[in-house]
Predict the 3D structure of the following.
Amino acid sequence: MGVTGPPGPVMDRDEVDRALARLAAEHKAVEDSLLALQDHAGRRLLEGAELTGATKARWAETEQTITALWAYFDAYTAALREARELRSRRRWSSREDLVELTERLRGESVAVSGTEVRAPGLTGGGGLVERFTLARLVERMNELYAASLDTVVCADAVWSALPARIDLLAAELGRTRSLAHSVGVRPGEHPSGDDLEAITQELALLRSQVVTDPLAFWRPAGGSSAPGGGRPDTERYDRAARALEEVRREVEAVLQVRQDSEARLLRLRDVLSRADRTLAEARAARGEVLAKIAASEVPAVSGPPTALQERLAAAAEHRRHARWNRLSPLLEALEQQAEEELLRAREELAAVTAPLAVRAELRGRLDAYRAKVARHGLAEDTLLIERYDTARRMLWSAPCDLRAAEQAVLRYQRAAAEALAGPSDHRGTR
């Protein structure tokens, strides 16, 4: 190579030796890095995989970059070897040798042809020649190495993280599907069966895409320039896992129905039977009220819960034929409706027997005041005896006029209160 003059002061022998030692160490570091990249599991996977999408395009660029890296490294190796040979000619290098060594070690002494280097983003293409100092060539190789390593590490990180997790989730999906089929949760027959089918398709598609286009599932870390800075994107996997967990809980609920359906059906029959007996009691009480209470509006009593009994029979039929997926929602609805039916029957009984309760309350109040009057020595009071007999006759006659009886009890209460308050001419009051 021609010498055009050293860049800056001419190096002395010690400076040359130190520079050669430093460059040799950098050469070793670059060589180790390139060999490690060559043996990286991610690079071997990328090299042998059928890639698609972003990964296919980026790997094609990275392959060119790696080729360029080796070309640069070969040029660096040759330049360093030539500098070493020049230095080793003489133990004490001449002025001319030191000038040339300074040019080789500090100047743009390394020429790389564009036909040898074809890498994305490089200016050395179309046969042009790039010239580098040894230091700048090391920087260029470090830049290209970082870009290449980033591609390899990111793809390898996705492949290491997602396919294995997808396979584990698919195995769990298989177990859940088998359990679901055993309780009748199948596509087209139960919403959870349709969900299982959708999750199955999503996992198959997700795994295929992860294997062929891993870089589409990489999220770089913001502001990070280190190779492999970021994390695998697990959003779709996480969504499928959550959906499967929801289905699994639904299937377990249906399975629980299979295990305790007999006891639940027995409880349902008992609740409906109690509701039926309560309505029968209300109907009987209504007849009694109509016979014993006059001038009272007694509400009608509804019939037995035949619609619920029919649905209960349908639930039992589902159980006999192991249609657990149909039995589960039906039982839940029946349990709520049966409790509502029992509550309604109790409310009807209370509404029907309300007049009898009022009569009983009036009877109790009348007797309580009579006992109080007797304790105060007024049991022989003529007015009180007369008013008590009138009220008692009304309350113990059938049919009983509640309104008139209530007024009679109130008249007795007022008379008793006046008598208890002190002497007065109440005995002559009517």
Strands lie at 110-113, 129-132, 218-220, 230-232, 293-294, 400-401.
